[in-house]
Amino acid sequence: MEQNNETDDGYFILLGFSDQPQLEFILFVVVLVSYLLTIIGNSVIILVSRLDAKLQTPMYFFLTNLSLLDLGFTTSAVPQLLWNLKGPAKTITWTGCVIQLYVFLSLGSTECVLLTIMAFDRYVAVCKPLNYTTIMHPSFCKALAGIAWVSGIGNSLMHVTSLLRLPRCGHHHLDHFLCEVPAIVKLACVNTHANEVQLFVATLVIILIPMSLILLSYGLIVQAVAKLKSAQAWRKALGTCGSHLIVVSFFFGTSSVIYIKPQKYYGYVDGKFLTLFYAVVTPTLNPLIYTLRNKDVKGALWRLLRIDEK
Q1: CB 35 within 8 A of CB 67
Q2: pLDDT, tens digit only, all 310 positions of the chain
Q3: Which of 11, 165, 212, 291 is the most exposed, fewest CB within 10 Å of its CB?
């Protein structure tokens, strides 16, 4: 009996998409391609933002942080997912699961706060252009980025540490492709109401409050641009804020559904595909959205490759 308990506590079985084996090869190819594109796309953004003098601005400082987050966020989940999709082995060690929990939740929480800070940056750029360089001073930008990282790490430490104390009574079949909070809560063999309340409160702080602040920022931007009654002003505002709005919609749209929905209504088929979207697809789309819609980034890339713009 002692040996079985040690075995149960030493690993988890990630069921993932094993109930749909016909999808596993397709998912393996899609996830692998998406991951490679994520690495290339975000690395390019980090490189051009650091090397091109014209991109040494607050907007691209925060975009570099977002790319770093996306690289770490997707890397915390994808290698394990690919390993499980390629063969019958679906296990992850207890240590690996704990590390994945901490890193995934930490970087995901940090991204929520960082996207809010980026919305504030766009608000200052559009509504207070004459004071932009004064307000968004480099030291202030670094402090804001630091707040995002510290808040994400703090939320993860607090939430995951309490979650890991829940007794599982030998349950180690995790109905997900990664160690994520809602799936881990399902393994507990005790009443988890207190943990669900804690998760809901954390969701309010990390997801709903940032979403509200982002909506407030863009509401003020729309109000300011509307007063100008200029088509050119609308185009400029859309060019400045459009990419960020698309990224925010993708990330918050999927993550909020997963974490706000009560546990008893949590559908793992839907949950797994939603998690797959914001953990794998969104980090792939982010650099494409910012480069395809951004002349500055495309120009910096051409300059980096020593290609003259026509």
Answers
A1: no
A2: 333 343 345 778 888 887 777 888 899 999 999 999 999 989 988 988 888 778 888 988 999 999 999 999 999 999 989 988 887 778 888 888 889 999 999 999 999 999 999 999 989 988 888 899 999 999 999 999 999 999 999 988 888 888 888 777 767 888 888 888 877 888 888 877 777 777 778 777 888 889 899 999 988 888 888 877 766 667 766 766 777 788 888 888 877 777 766 555 455 556 788 888 888 888 888 888 877 666 777 777 777 776 544 4
A3: 165
**CA–CA separation, 256 and 223 (whole Å):** 27
| Beta strands across the sheet bearing 91-93 | 91-93, 11-14, 173-174
Sequence-distant (6+) residues with CB within 8 A of 152 are 106, 107, 108, 109, 110, 111, 112, 113, 206
pTM for this model (two decimals): 0.85
Are the beta carbons of 204 and 256 closer than 8 angstroms?
no
Q: How many CB atoms lie within 10 A of CB 159?
A: 22
Strands (E), 77-132: 91-93
DSSP H or E stretch at residue 173: strand 173-174
Structure tokens at 198: 């804690």
